[in-house]
Amino acid sequence: MALDIVLITGMSGSGKSVALHALEDAGFFCVDNLPPDLLLQFVSLEPHQRAPRLAIAMDARSARSLDTVPTLLKTLQAQGHRTSTLFLDATTDTLMRRYSETRRKHPLSQQLPTDSAQDMSRALVDAIELERNMLSNLREHAHVIDTSLIRASQLQSYVKEVISSPAQQLTLVFESFAFKRGVPVDADYVFDVRMLPNPHYEPALRELTGLDLPVQDFLHSHDEVARMLNEIAGFLQQWLQALARDHRSYVTVAIGCTGGQHRSVYLVEQLARRFASDWHALKRHRELDADAP
Question: 128 is in which domain, residue-wise?
């Protein structure tokens, strides 16, 4: 019996438990912190339990055997199972803030003297960077979701969107963002559109977004906006088939402007609409979905 298997991994504190709950709500049988050594055995038992959709979380707590996971997934695929991997990530500053707020200890932190707050902060940074290095191979083979600025409810929506994507078709994720809040860590390609006419300087448009018709009309009226749209689309059209042949399941294209409210939102909407007929296209607007700064 072929199973749908979603592996959830990523940085500690990035929201893996939220993603796991989203998949549980979507009808998956979920297991947290399954050691990689038990993966094949666990999957072999599940057809007898009549659980055709599995979600399995793995992280740095299984450090010694994480390197075996890509090979194990290939084995499962050879057995006829459908597998996908989600990697949840966040900036180091965000992870440090979350640990500070929850007062939890990072799973890779060592028992250290706490003579000063500076020592504790340095130990946390070191643990986060060590974890990034340990998980880098898994990240390379996964669809990455940057959780730095999004709400838990929005992350749940993102996860459900991703798992609904056709298994054998490349999925394009178009994401708008504000450069002033940092480049998304999940971006495969980043395009800077800050040189385009800015609706922010039009009083009647300032409080609107690229989802609103007056802003869309304003941007549509400028030739340079159309040229930028066509050139980004042309670049993607030239390389998407090659990416698909390279067995890529997801490609995230990030479009950034100053505030992530007008120009980048408009271009993401236009690009998603343009590519939807030939590819599975998703769209995200980081600043519109984000927590308050």
Answer: 4-163
